[in-house]
Specification:
Layout (H helix, E strand, L loop, with lengths): L2 E10 L3 H14 L5 E5 L13 E7 L2 H9 L1 H11 L2 E9 L7 H13 L11
Antiparallel strand pairs: 1-3, 1-4, 2-3
Helix pairs in contact: 1-3
């Protein structure tokens, strides 16, 4: 199942270190079959607000995403980014090609209809 590295970059300062980071990051992704899906263009916000930009990197699975992030090659360049860009990075597993949200809805409905069930707050 695919997994993703998702970064929400809120404040960016252009710096020579960022250029070096961009020049070196692909070499850190290649051994883990990581590829950029989204890389920082401004988003068209249609609901709510979105300060900053986003980056989405796809990996074959969560194991590869974790291995990339923890790899000596990536750790060696990480500060080039974090010293100059404020943001958050998440590693998250995707859904498979046959994903059907109605199955999740049925599970949530069954949980809610159990006798004595209290409403459960689920993270989005």
């Amino acid at each position: 199942m695919p997994a993703y590295g998702f970064a929400h970059l809120r404040s960016r300062r252009h710096h020579a270190d960022i250029v070096e980071y961009l020049e070196r990051i692909q070499a850190t992704l290649d051994p883990f079959e990581g590829r950029f899906v989204i890389h920082g263009p401004p988003a068209e916000v249609v609901e709510g607000s979105w300060p900053g930009s986003m980056v989405l990197i796809e990996f074959p699975g969560l194991a590869e995403a974790r291995a990339w992030y923890n790899s000596p090659a990536y750790q060696d360049i990480l500060r080039l980014r974090t010293d100059h860009i404020e943001g958050d990075l998440l590693l998250i597993e995707g859904v498979g090609p046959g994903y059907d949200p109605t199955e999740r809805a049925a599970k949530l409905r069954a949980e809610a209809e159990r006798p004595g069930a209290r409403p459960r707050r689920e993270r989005a």
